[in-house]
Q: What sequence folds into this?
């Protein structure tokens, strides 16, 4: 029976045994608090029916618990130095497959097809913070079947994902995440729950994937370009940010006409628009006057 790693003593013992050195470039902050680990797994709603994809198992602290809660666990770890350690800490976990690879470069669709027979998976992770956004957006945009993504992220990033129009945290990330999923912040986690301690606060957020997007924009790609352009210059009016954006080719008159049709003031800022309003704007522009 392998010892429970969710405490400072066992984590330090494993690290010392293998002479492991933490790699800052891989965002390695290992969890050492059993309560937080239990909270993440409860928030993820993992059951014995589920296949879980864990990103960055580290020394296997959360993987051990996931192995007990789920039917199967697929864990992808970039750091080759952790693979022999996982071999030992997960020796009793017959339902775990560890893959040494970069989650951003892996053929995820192929992997999940092979390992999970294409059934929807739950993603659970204490994410490396330096690539939080590319990982989450990559998971959604890849179109692989996913039920929920429950992850530890930097607290400010969790707040941005959950923010609504008018809030200072509201931005392109809020809209992108909320197009694909319903966000819920399940817990705030202080730095002393990790080794080494990160110099930012953390939060556990669950993203429950929508069966279909809450808005039906005819051209979602254009909608996201409008969103990005609006928030690139968030202190400017919507009209000016969109007319000046190099990635768009609408005239001020075309944008003005669409804004007026929506019943909005010409001085409105993009940061006050909801996802539904961005979808409407994108439909008006693409139907009437969108020039390639
Ligand atoms: N799950 C462990 C825990 O909670 O103690 C470790 C979490 S640590 C914040 C992030 C983990 O992700 C590290 O093990 C790191 O090596 C791994 N990692 C970093 N970048 C990665 C990538 N691109 N693909 C897969 N794993 C990565």
A:
């Amino acid at each position: 029976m392998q010892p429970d790693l969710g405490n400072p003593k066992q984590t330090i013992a494993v690290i010392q045994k293998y002479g492991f050195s933490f790699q800052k470039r891989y965002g390695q902050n290992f969890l050492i608090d059993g309560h937080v680990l239990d909270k993440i797994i409860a928030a993820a709603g993992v059951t014995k029916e589920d296949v879980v994809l864990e990103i960055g198992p580290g020394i296997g602290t959360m993987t051990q618990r996931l192995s007990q809660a789920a039917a199967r666990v697929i864990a992808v770890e970039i750091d080759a130095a952790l693979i022999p350690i996982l071999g030992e800490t997960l020796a009793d976990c017959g339902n775990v497959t560890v893959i040494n690879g970069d989650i951003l470069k892996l053929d995820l669709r192929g992997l999940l097809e092979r390992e999970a027979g294409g059934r929807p998976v739950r993603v659970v992770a204490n994410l490396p913070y330096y690539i939080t956004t590319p990982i989450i957006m990559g998971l959604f945009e890849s179109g692989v079947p996913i039920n929920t993504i429950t992850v530890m992220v930097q607290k400010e990033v969790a707040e941005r994902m959950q923010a609504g129009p008018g809030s200072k945290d509201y931005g392109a990330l809020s809209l992108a995440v909320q197009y694909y999923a319903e966000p819920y912040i399940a817990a705030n986690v202080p730095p002393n729950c990790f080794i080494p301690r990160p110099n930012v606060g953390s939060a556990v957020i669950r993203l429950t994937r929508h069966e279909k997007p809450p808005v039906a924009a005819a051209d979602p790609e254009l909608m996201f370009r409008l969103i990005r352009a609006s928030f690139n210059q968030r202190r400017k009016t919507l009209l000016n940010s969109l007319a000046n954006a190099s990635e768009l080719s609408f005239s001020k008159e075309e944008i003005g006409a669409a804004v007026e049709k929506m019943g909005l003031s010409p001085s409105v800022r993009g940061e006050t628009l909801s996802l539904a309003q961005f979808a409407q704007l994108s439909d008006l522009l693409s139907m009437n006057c969108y020039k390639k």
